[in-house]
Design goal:
Elements: H1 6-22, H2 29-46, H3 51-61, H4 70-100, E1 108-111, H5 116-127, E2 133-137, H6 145-154, E3 158-162, H7 167-171, E4 176-179, E5 183-184, E6 190-193, H8 196-205, E7 209-213, E8 256-259, E9 266-269, E10 272-274, H9 279-287
Parallel strand pairs: 1-2, 1-4, 2-3, 4-7, 7-9
Antiparallel strand pairs: 5-6, 6-8, 9-10
The chain binds ribulose-1,5-diphosphate.
């Protein structure tokens, strides 16, 4: 939890492998590849829900196994890492530019948790001089909403913090919802911070537009083959203080949830705005000829 947000997590994973390759001293190509595999597995186990990390790690290690020398493999991993991080940063900027077009002067926006992609959109609309108001949820239990409100306040945005259970009430005053993504499935479902699906449900009821901001490396190739996304559960200490509840009380702390495609008006990516139904086609195109090569996954 020192690094949060699926985009930052992916860049941190890629950069860590890049540093590892840069500083790998001595040894053999085989040894390097084995160590790289182990390092990748360790990184992937740290955050099971955000596929951005999986995509970042695989983009960084891609081709290393075909290298003919240790130096070639190290240089490739290092270059891949730099390229992934640069691509990721460009994607977040592009999403801000594309998403801001959806925001009109006078709009009231709601956001959830702390997404750099969603906040990029909001800050860009504000930078363009649009008069907007934003409601941000507290996002219990970790309260990432505090980061969101301070970030938007620093940018000069009119920002109001609400508790998570006020979402349905406040939705009546909202025009548009912008949230981030940890993972997008091939069917266009959105996996994001727990509570996102409640925003979507309330938005649907109130006929408020609901947008997910997702770089295409948040698209999960594994879901093309029917894999489901693992929803991370975190420690009970995030929810209660020691001794607060009887010993027999169980605590369930899932930290992400799934919003079906039918509740999402559009997914804003660096390639443009797309209907959730278009995700499958984009994935197939991006994966190219190797798509049905199961060894990839
Ligand atoms: C953060 C969260 C964010 C997404 C997208 O959860 O759910 O909405 O990760 O963020 P946590 P971004 O704080 O548990 O990592 O747009 O920055 O990738």
């Amino acid at each position: 939890m020192e690094i949060r947000g699926a985009g930052r997590i992916a860049r941190a994973g890629a950069a860590a492998l890049g540093d590892f390759a840069d500083s790998y001293a001595g040894g053999t190509l085989e040894g390097f590849l084995e160590d790289l595999d182990r390092a990748s597995e360790t990184l992937l186990a740290s955050r099971p829900t955000a596929v951005s990390l999986w995509n970042g790690v695989h983009a960084t290690t891609r081709g290393a196994g075909d290298a003919s020398s240790l130096d070639e493999a190290r240089a490739l991993v290092s270059a891949n890492a730099r390229e992934f991080c640069a691509r990721s940063e460009r994607a977040v900027e592009e999403i801000a530019r594309i998403g801001a077009r959806r925001i009109q002067d006078g709009d009231t926006i709601m956001t959830h948790c702390n997404s750099s992609a969603a906040l990029g959109v909001i800050k860009e609309a504000h930078r363009q001089g649009k008069d907007i108001k934003v409601y941000a949820t507290e996002s219990r239990p970790w309260r990432q909403g505090i980061l969101t409100v301070n970030d938007l306040a620093d940018a000069g945005v009119d920002i109001t913090l609400i508790i998570d259970s006020a979402v349905r009430t406040v939705m009546k005053r909202t025009d548009k919802v912008f949230v981030g993504a940890d993972t997008v499935t091939s069917q266009g479902a959105l996996i994001n911070k727990v509570g996102t699906s409640q925003l979507a449900l309330a938005a649907h009821e109130a006929r408020v537009q609901f947008y997910a901001c997702a770089e295409t490396y948040k698209f999960s190739p594994m879901t093309l083959f029917g894999d489901t996304v693992t929803i991370e559960e975190r420690d009970v200490s995030e929810v209660i203080r020691p001794g607060e509840v009887r010993g027999s009380v169980k605590i369930f702390n899932p930290v992400f949830d799934s919003t079906p495609a039918s509740y999402i008006d559009a997914i804003i990516t660096e390639l443009g705005m797309m209907n959730p139904g278009a995700v499958y086609g984009v994935m197939v195109k991006q994966l190219g000829d190797g798509i049905f090569n199961q060894e990839l996954f």
